[in-house]
Write a structure and sequence with these properties.
This protein is mainly alpha-helical. The protein is 71% helix and 1% strand. The protein is built from 17 helices and 2 strands. A hairpin with a 2-residue loop joins strand 1 and strand 2. Helix 1 packs across helix 3. The chain is globular and about 65 Å long. The site of farnesyl diphosphate has 17 residues, from helix 5, helix 7, helix 8 and helix 9.
């Protein structure tokens, strides 16, 4: 087994314990939802990154607390991530998450939105216990950037980005910033220099960009692999790279027809906004999904991720040792991720 996979396994128990303890501090009304969302699998990439950066940079003055441990700081961004997924599945009207019923299908939309809010508040409260302004600033920024990325994505839904930067800005906000923050929290907790904090942040941001680009490629994988139907982004009218590449392969007339249908709001979540135009039929969605897979656009999308993985690797140049090796392996994990 690769060392990164072993390290991830080694972190599972203390991270899960920290999550369980924190769930118990939450209002009872939301504990069931928090448990369902937080403890139903997931790779725990964000806590692992905090822990590895902490272990690599830990110096003479790490941030300490009389009762909390590094694991408590490592779960905060996981809580934010899971809160964002609770909200995201409502916004995307997604029935499945990690191969299981989405929380809002099981518990209802309103309780899930509020449980998401409670997770955000509990994460903030936990981090505040460390009484460090830099940590608080990092996590507030992460929340703001994530929400902004999602807003930008909603604004772009059904449209074709006029520039690659529009897509990159969305994924930097909605995904990369929390991963960046996870690395930075590890560096700050370790008492690292500003210079090393910057390297941790750059590594995380670039890893996060690559992670979402690979995720957008994986969206065109079989349901049995990704735990949700293939082509979800097409259905959700997100013009990700595989969809953009497909669009580029069409004739001008075909492109026009595609854009017309792509712009139609999905039902049922927006059904109060009746529209004249008719969107893609189920059969068309399935056909386009198949064409994208056959043309190998998901594989070509993965190539885009390489540039970011390269930049992340450059942030590690000045380091040595076992933790650096783990961070290098994390890059390979993201590059070759297949679920
Ligand atoms: C998943 O993307 C969604 C995100 C990475 C971010 C969602 C953010 C919000 C809902 C804003 C609220 C912010 C906070 C911090 C609560 P996706 O839909 O492309 O991926 P998926 O296929 O896994 O759903
Ligand atoms: Mg989604």
């Amino acid at each position: 087994m690769k060392e990164f996979a072993k390290a991830v396994l080694g972190f599972q128990e203390p991270v899960t314990k920290a999550l369980q303890n924190t769930i118990l501090t939450m209002p009872q009304s939301v504990q069931k939802i928090a448990e369902y969302a937080l403890l139903s699998g997931g790779k725990r990439l964000r806590p692992c990154l905090t822990l590895i950066w902490y272990n690599m940079l830990k110096g003479a003055n790490p941030i300490q607390h009389s009762t909390l441990s590094i694991y408590d700081s490592a779960i905060v961004l996981e809580m934010f991530h899971v809160a964002s997924l609770l909200h995201d599945d409502v916004l995307d009207d997604a029935d499945l998450r990690r191969g299981k019923e989405s929380a809002h299908i099981k518990f209802g939309i309103r309780p899930c939105l509020l449980a998401g809010d409670a997770l955000l508040a509990t994460g903030n409260k936990l981090m505040a216990e460390f009484q460090n302004v830099a940590l608080m600033s990092v996590i507030s920024d992460a929340l703001l950037k994530t929400a902004n990325g999602e807003i930008e994505e909603i604004e772009l839904a059904g449209k074709v980005p006029s520039h690659e930067q529009e897509y990159l800005s969305v994924i930097e906000g909605k995904t990369a910033w929390i991963i960046r923050s996870a690395c930075l929290v590890g560096a700050i907790m370790a008492g690292a220099s500003k210079e090393d904090q910057e390297k941790a942040a750059n590594y995380g941001l670039n890893l996060g960009m690559a992670f979402q680009i690979v995720d957008d490629a994986l969206d065109f994988s079989d349901e049995s692999i990704i735990g949700k139907p293939a082509g979800g982004d097409l259905r959700e009218r997100k013009c990700t790279p595989p969809i953009f590449m497909y669009l580029q392969s069409l004739t001008k007339e075909e492109q026009q027809e595609f854009i017309e249908k792509f712009s139609v709001l999905p039902s049922p979540i927006f059904e109060h906004q009746k529209q004249e135009k008719i969107g893609f039929t189920e059969q068309e969605l399935a056909e386009i999904t198949q064409k994208i897979i056959q043309a190998k656009y998901p594989e070509k999308t993965r190539e885009l991720a390489s540039k970011y993985l390269q930049k992340a690797e450059e942030s590690l140049h000045d380091f040595t040792g076992q933790n650096k090796e783990l961070l290098l392996e994390a890059l390979e994990y993201v590059r070759s991720r297949n679920k």
